[in-house]
Amino acid sequence: MKKLSAWLLLLALALTGCAGDAKTAAEPDPVPVRVSRAISGSISEEISFSGEVAAGREVQVMPKTAGRVAAVEFAVGQEVKKGDLLVRLEAEELAVMVKQAEAALEMARANLKNARSGAALAQLKAAEEQSLANLEAVKSNLARMEMLYEEGAVSLQQLEGVRLQHRVAESQYNLAREQAETFRRGEGQLEILAAQVRQAEAGLEMARLNYRNSLVTAPVSGVVSLRNAEVGAMVAPGAPVAVIADMERVLVTARVTEQTLRLLAPGMAVAVEVPSLGAVFAGEVREVAPAAAAGGRSYPVRIALAEAKEARPGMFARVRVAAASRAEAVLVPRAALLEQGGVFYAYSVRDGRAKRREVTVGLRDENYVEVQSGFAPGDLVVTAGHHFLRDGLPVLVEEGEVR
Q1: What is the pTM of this model?
Q2: May I ask the CATH architecture of the domain 47-54+246-325?
């Protein structure tokens, strides 16, 4: 009897324990959660892609004359202005060449001056004119004497005397004329001498230009991105001594996929973030390549930045482009969205219990996602603790953001 009573007591205790366990399993502890409210508002979905900051243009600085570097007046990263001295070449030989060219010009001018004597030419012309006048006078006198001789008014001796004067006057005129013609023919030589003067002048200008070119200056304003000159080294035209990046116009170069390419067009406004500067700049799409880059399936694009002088070539950039927008949409925080097997859902709270709601997802931005079904503006939506929920579990709403 006592033995039976003991077994009944043990059975009762076991049944009591099982009932307590069943009650616990049926009523689990509430899950702490935080909630927000679905809202109605506008949303824009963005896509982003990475790029690299580049100068609007890069100019290679090349010397215009060969020589040995005497001094370098710049450093990489230095900001320079147009006309600033960058490299000075040894110029002693160039200075000697200038002096030689000056001496050659002086000699050419002296030769021309000696050949172009205005006084000699005037004297020869005067002698020619005088001898011609004398010849005309003697010729007139000879004609008169011949008439008188025919009339018997003068003797043959007198006539012969006048004839002799005519021959002398004619000979003098011919000599004066030949001398003048000889000088005039010498004017062709004067043209040669004048050309030699012009040649010497050009040679002097070239020598002076080479001397000035021994000072290599910045052709544009910007930031020096490359130095290729050292004191004592030889430089020559065609080999750059520096590269200057024109930072007045800053670009971002990038390569995008064909899916992103269809969203871009020249003139489109974009936002460009440069994380190293902690800044976002307004940008404008300038160029969109019509064909993929060689050896790949990406498309080069170039974006101009406004007021980004502090950006430097090579900095990482992220470009954000608005892909689509909606003026009126039901929005929930992105943190509330869950996904399983390709199905999106979120939890709401109703009568202290979690309620799973499948949703149709629309546009997204950094903070919100559009739900096209499943929620209405004002509905509570769980934003934290939802990873531990199942449909119908009791919840304990903690203090948090509730809108």
Answers
A1: 0.48
A2: Beta Barrel (2.40)
